[in-house]
Amino acid sequence: MGFLDKLFGRTTKEEKVMAEKLNIGIILGSTREGRVSPQVGNWVKEIANKRGDANYEIVDIADFNLPFLGTTDGTEPGIAAWNQKLASLDGFIFIVQEYNHSITGALKNALDFAREAWNNKAAGIVSYGSVGGARAAEHLRGILGELAVADVRTHPALSLFTDFENGSNFKPADMHANTVNEMLDQLVKWSTALKTIR
Residue ranges of the domains in the chain? Predict the structure, then answer.
């Protein structure tokens, strides 16, 4: 920024982006009855809200009633609402559970129902499963690359054996909060940078 810009209060696009709070969606990746993703998503949101560096909100795929891709003419209102919600967000945190060594069908379907709304944004991944959901997270990373979403490196991985009681009551080990904050540090930086090119 030059002297005259400062004198007359003009700001660059990059400075405007830095001044605005990011909108980050915490996407619940499961829609089945009895799912635990809302517990994990709310835990991440509680940690994130304490930071004050972005606006964080839960985005539940189940709320959009998306049909299966290829079985519709695309006019269902949930499809447009889903794309509008994604377009309003600057970054994403995916709450990912491992099903048969991959992500859920509901999450893959939701990913495929949008294109441009994903592009040039950043994402973090919080996964859970018998091996921390690691295989699901790795599959998701490949899909995000195709959608031009930059996924950050740090990845909180939660174990069904040690972070859940009876496989359903979420009680994360204290150490995971630090990993979530590391992931959020990266996500906010990348989301801020990518906003300047959209």
Answer: 20-195
pLDDT tens sequence across 100-135? 999 999 999 999 999 999 999 999 999 999 999 999
Burial 22-45 (b: 16+ CB within 10 A, else e): bebbbbbbbbeeebbbebbbebbb
Task: For 108-143, give the DSSP string.
Answer: HHHHHT-STTTTTEEEEEEEEETTTTHHHHHHHHHH
Pairing of β 22-28 and β 91-97: parallel
Exposed (0-12), middle (13-18) or buried (19+): which is 76, by Cβ within 10 Å? middle
Whole-structure pTM over 0.85, yes or no? yes
Q: Which residues pair with 26 in a beta bridge?
A: 58, 93
- Burial classification of residue 198, based on how many CB atoms lie within 10 Å of its CB (0-12 exposed, 13-18 middle, 19 or more buried): exposed
Report the distance separating Cα 116 and Cα 125, nearest Å.
Answer: 20
- Determine the 3-state secondary structure of 198 from DSSP: coil
Other C-beta atoms closer than 10 Å to the C-beta of 65 total 13
- Please give the class, per CATH, of domain 20-195: alpha beta
